[in-house]
Amino acid sequence: MDCPLCCSRQNRLFFQGKDRPFYQCHVCLLVFVPASHYLSIEAERGHYRQHDNHPEDPGYRAFLSRLCVPLCKRLAPHSSGLDFGSGPGPTLSVMLEETGHKVAIYDPAFAPDMLVLNRQYQFITATEVVEHLHTPGKILNQLNAILLPGGWLGIMTSLAPDKRRFPDWHYKNDPTHVCFYSSETFGYIAHRFHYDLEFLEGNVILLKKKVDTEPDSITM
Fold it and tell me: Is residue 177 within 8 Å of 171, Cβ to Cβ?
């Protein structure tokens, strides 16, 4: 069984849950659920539709502002970006466009326009997305390829706790959550792709792509 992030086979059982096991990679420290426990795309889509998120919801806007506000402070005016995993009610893209930026959206379940993945961007956002990815290594490679040098990758996801606290962590109970990242895992990602890394409040991770660098090669 390969790690879905770094492809290492140095994995060990991390926690045995009631309905599914969780493994941890010895190399990148990603905690992940085996592919045999993934939901179908139809079941995932039905689960996501239970979330009543939309641009008119002030609570949802406040949640997304944790990423939107600090990211906008770092962007040049009128930057071009991609909201990856925009969901059934795209909202972050609307908020960013209200500040003068141009934003495309992509979501494999709700906005599967592959053409937007053939362009390059000054920033990419992924809010509450990376924990759902079945192939995070492949997706991050893809996003890195379309992020311009000096560009920003903004992520929101809850950081995985240590083994002692993991059994009581509610975030692992969502059946669509299959990959869990610690600060060390993001350190691996930053090193792998040559990004500068910042951890902000509210489970926000900002990665800035360094100029004139290429990611280390791994077998995908």
Answer: yes
